[in-house]
Amino acid sequence: MKDIQLTIDKTFGFVNQAAVQGYKQQATEAQKMLHEGTGKGNDFLGWLNLPKELTPEFLDDINTTAQYLKDNCEVIVVIGIGGSYLGAKAVNDALSDTFAWIKQDKPLIVYAGQNIGEDYLYELQELLKTKKFGIISISKSGTTTEPALAFRLLKTQLEQQQGKQEAQKLIVCITDKARGALRTLATQEGYKTFVIEDNVGGRYSVLSPVGLLPIACAGFDIKQLVAGAVRMQELCDISVPYEQNPAAQYAAVRNELYKNGKTTEILVNFNPKLHYVSEWWKQLYGESEGKENKGIFPASVDFTTDLHSMGQWIQEGQRTIFETVISVEKPNHEVLFPFNEDNLDGLNFLAGKRVDEVNKMAELGTMLAHIDGGVPNIKISMPQLNEYYLGELIYFFEKACGISGYILGINPFNQPGVEAYKKNMFALLDKPGYEEESKKIKQRLK
Ligand code: PA5
User: Fold this and answer.
1) What is the pTM of this model?
2) CATH code of the domain containing 138
């Protein structure tokens, strides 16, 4: 069976190959810090061995809970934000039929608590009025405002529609084992719960119940997802020599590009189903590396769509960027381009070809054009879009992020900067306990 492949040779016109290979010692040190738990943020390393630690019994428990929700709900609302949302959304969008919401052959999975848009919540509540729905409420801290707000609204609605007793069976909470408001609430109401372990941070939690339950609810094979992650855990293990270790190589080359002025990394796909994989990746790398006035800015585009918008900037704008392209080798379906007698659109040269052949030539043509335009190119080839290879991809990015963060010299597992907006928001909302901040901030606004 093939694996995901990393190709970095199209960066060597921009950075020195020997310099990239010169990261051997730093990358090995970084790996040691991860595996021996001697680096910054070492109380958040639970993700490192997570795939191998997930037992079949545990996955069966997740699948049984998912089956109950699937059997009893027309809509399942997954509530969470950041790491408590993006991993599940990424995998579910990548694997779902794009038009599943119209076909309605399985419960519809929708998301809430990832924004505070009143219109979004109004429209969701309107949709749910005529549906039997369930809720998966996810928050590690159990105190994050956005999901807590959505949960209160939707729990109230569910209890009004179904009665408290039935609603209780349709709510599952995923949170800390002891702390936080969500844990207190779940215990008091008697909800089914799953635990997010202390040592697994939000953005590294997709292979914990945080991602696995919503993915199982969407009907996908979480055992295959975990099998792919286990495989990548082996391929990126500390015992694998630096030159053959894809996570170490990716971490090294992006640090060398950064050192050479390439301060923005653009994650590129040629398959719209990967849009949220990029959103997940941006959170993983942005929140992990953007600190101490350092860090590559993670951006993303969906090609060929964005070749008609951002393509101009990428081709000819400021030369501070590099691209990392996720290329899916084989589509899951076949569409052949038809022959037309009149050929009024002049497209008969494509007759009999698969649509993917056109897409692949667009991909190749874009890579060559962007290299010519001064944009280094990293390629990640994925044999197919399925659970197994998404599992490989997730673990690959997680491991590389840990190594890359340590090479950069920061703590890849905290996010102190996220607190600043919360403090201001609470002060502006007059939250009890924020009286002093409230006075100060209101003074500033006069
Ligand atoms: O990666 C992280 O830790 C964050 O993005 C969190 O996942 C996010 O802030 C949500 O936190 P919580 O799960 O505590 O509600």
Assistant:
1) 0.97
2) 3.40.50.10490
